[in-house]
Amino acid sequence: MDTSIDNAQLNFNNDNLWVLNIILAVVMFGVALGLKVSDFQNVLKAPKPVILGLISQFILLPVLTFALIYIMKPQASIALGMIMIAACPGGNISNFMTQIAGGNSALSVTLTSFATVLSIFFTPFNLQLWGSLYPPTNEILKEVSISPIDVFQTIVLILGFPLVIGMLVRALIPKISEILSKILKPLSILIFIALVAVAFLNNMDLFNKYIDQVIFLVFLHNAIAILSGYHLGNIFGLSREDRRTLGVETGIQNSGLGLLLIFSFFNGLGGMAIVAGWWGIWHIVSGLSLAYIWNRKKAKVPVKA
To answer: If we measure between CA atoms, which residue out of 1, 73, 4 comes closest to residue 274?
Structure first.
């Protein structure tokens, strides 16, 4: 078996890393501009869908990811990349996809926001826990000597601070926050997509060499994520709209955060970076495709008189 992917490193310099940091901070700031303290209080009135969504992202998906790794036994760096993706919160583009899919947009925004806040704690916890339980990935963690506290500090800087600042701006100058939110969210997402594309182009030789090792795994992993979220909602009797939202929120992970952590702490380790980079592309394709299918099904439902 070819294990060279475990030693391959992607070319991603410090300037690119700083740009990625800034983009993620701006995305989080844009999300926070639409949040109020009352939004968090409203969750207490109907907590079931939110609690299930968070369980789906931070407990169910990491468990299923670990099971998939044990069954498929991918290369160590690929396996750790899968664990990294499962440890990240939902991505901001999920809100757009949920709207197209006929899901619950308010629930989607709430889940994205809550998951991002909780990721400050759960992302380093899940990465360390599940990574250490699988011997090949545990060896990488030992070699890198990654500290969950260091990961925690990084996430606080790029997600925690922008969240607090954004909510303060929303509370103090709401009119300006509405204008900024409409501009920043789509702009930052477009810039992020462009940055991922540039990273792919700069490392095309490596991607061409190893992409065949991750295409099927990312496809399977992403499908499991979407289906697990949807069916968890089904098991607990959520509405169709809420089930679709849980499916999208669980399947559209913040691969940008994953890439940032990979380049910051693992020096762009080949298998990890290729998994996260390809996930970042594939989940847009799968999410939009599924949203289109669900939208068509919604349109075909006859309207009752």
So the answer is: 4
